[in-house]
Amino acid sequence: MTSVEVVERRRPPSSLVRNDARIMGAVVAVLADAGWAGVTVASVARAAGLSPRPVQDRFPDRWAMAVGAWQQQVGPALEGALLELLESAGLEDDRLPRDRPAGPVLQLRAALESALDAAGLRHLIVGQLPEDLDDPLLEMNLALESALDAAGRADLMSLRAAGPSADWLANALGAFLRPGAELRAAAELLVVSAFNDDLAETVGSEVAHRVAAWCHPTGEHPEAAVSRAYLISIALGLLLSRTRQGAADLDLRDEARHLLDAFKNQSKPAVLPATRAEHLDDFLGFDTGDASLDALLRGTMEEVGRVGYEGATTAAIGRASGRSEGLVFARYPSKVELFVDATRRQHARNWRANEVFHQGIAAVHGPGIAEAVVIREFQRPDLRGYRAISLEQVRMALHDERLREVQWGELELLVAQALAEDPNWAAAGTPAHLHFSVAIGLGVTVLPILAPEAWLLPYDVVTVPLDEG
Predict the structure, then answer these.
(1) Reduced to 3 states, what is the DSSP secondary structure of residue 423?
(2) What is the rounded average pLDDT of the residues 91-98?
(3) Can you give the CATH number for the domain in which 418 is found?
(4) How many CA atoms lie within 13 A of 408 on its CB side?
(5) Cα angle: 367, vertex 368, 371; to 5 degrees
(6) Sign of dihedral through CA atoms 412, 414, 415, 420?
(7) How far apart are CA 14 and CA 134, in angstroms?
(8) Structural domain span for residue 64
(9) Is the pLDDT of residue 96 over 70?
(10) Where does 215-334 have alpha helices with state H?
(11) Residues 6 or more apart in contact with residue 216 via CB below 8 angstroms
(12) Residue 163 is assigned to a structural domain of this protein
């Protein structure tokens, strides 16, 4: 029985249904706070206030818990945040389905809304209540949390009422830069879905079909699809780069204005250079001068790309390297030290190779065209393995200080060198502008998980006006 079948089998009533809701809430909390590595039957049981037995009876492994969490909480939360994002920029498409199935506790919902209406607060929670939960107590709790959250951000409703604007867009992007538990959990599950077919199938069927429709390259209005794809990529990149120093304090309004201007003033699609990013074809090419070490580093990344960091054992790394497990511990005190070193060496090579590739195209065709080509290359279907490894490195850096230093240290060094060569280097700009550049670089590698055909979009219709603006 697959993880999807385990989750989708008929649920028993009463206390077991309530346990399901508690377990799913606990899975989300553990994912948000400890990451995928923290999700075990024992940790989820503790967070849910249950013994391990009912958790394991209902969800026999962590992948089944991940599938359930995505279906019940994480996927709907991500979809809702993305829809808010598109609406804030005037990019929603009324022709695409937006309805969600009603939940089984409509009477409770009506009573709650009536009480809030009588208190003059109902307007604050319109559109905020979840509609597909099975536990009335959990639904009431989440509804009250939504009401309190909305009351603390009462201006959001006025932003919505006023229509698309830089302020509303900045607010919607801020939900990804300063995410709640469900979006933090979404970041974890999006990345690790590369390592489990059941979770990948669930992500694809629950959210990706809608994102793929928003960003489809052969639709009636491909220019709008480009804007959606670019904006969603920025949001997903903000979600993954949220631990970069100073990121949480950024004011996003100026960047939101630039985006809206570019979306309104798109250029005509150009025939993009067919230049191939050949350095991505051999992104695991280590050259330390030590053949055994090169093989070990490459084998580490290949195994991580196959099963994820947590699934990669030192024995499997040894086999993937064509060496023994003993070589791992002869060279490194632990698996994490090996992974940190492999990541450091790979970043030092790839950050610079990416910049050289971009500069070479920009020198001939301009920065806007160069960025469009880079996006196309990073989203190529044949680079799924590259994206899986890169995103796993980013995900791990959310939770490990050493990897975070590697992840962002190389970037900061590259920025410093570029500014030393050209003090007016446009990519640096303001701190928010630089961070948006970082976010789009990460986000375009996430988008193919949700919209595999987005690599065919004419991104230059947005990147050129952004560069010229």
Answers:
(1) coil
(2) 61
(3) 1.10.357.10
(4) 21
(5) 85
(6) positive
(7) 10
(8) 3-72
(9) no
(10) 222-240, 253-264, 291-307, 314-321, 325-331
(11) 222, 225, 451, 453
(12) no
- Answer for the pair 49, 21: CB distance below 8 angstroms, yes or no: no
HSE-CB for 377 with a 13 A CA cutoff: 22
Residues in the chain: 469
Q: How far is CA 405 from CA 291, 397, 412, 438, in A?
A: 27, 8, 10, 15
Domain ends where: 72, 101, 128? 72
Number of domains in the chain: 2
pLDDT for 273 beyond 90: yes
The secondary structure of residue 456, as a DSSP letter, is G
CA dist list (Å): 440 to 202, 230, 232, 267? 25, 8, 9, 19
On whether the CB atoms of residues 232 and 85 are closer than 8 A, the answer is yes
State the pTM of this model.
0.84
Of residues 149 and 342, more confidence is placed in 342
Distance CA 375, CA 36 (A): 28
Q: Which residues of 430-447 are buried (b: 16+ CB within 10 A; e: fewer)?
A: eebebbbbbbbbbbbbbb
Asked, for residue 19, whether it belongs to a domain, the answer is yes
Domain-located, residue 401: yes
Degrees, nearest 5: CA angle 374-294-312: 80
How far from 464 is each of 235, 365, 375, 456, CA to CA, in Å? 20, 10, 13, 17
Single out the residue of 124, 133, 141 nearest to residue 73, CA to CA: 133
Tokens of 235: 């949001």
467, 367 Cβ separation under 8 angstroms? yes
Using an 8 Å Cβ cutoff, are 462 and 266 in contact? yes
Q: 72, 350, 330: which is closest to 186 by C-alpha?
A: 72
147, 125 Cβ separation under 8 angstroms? yes
**Could you say which of 12, 46, 72 is where a domain stops?**
72
Tell me the chain's radius of gyration from C-alpha atoms.
Answer: 23
Whether 399 and 342 have beta carbons less than 8 Å apart is answered as no
Distance CA 31, CA 253 (A): 30
Residue 153 lies in a domain: no
pLDDT tens string 238-253: 999 999 999 999 999 9
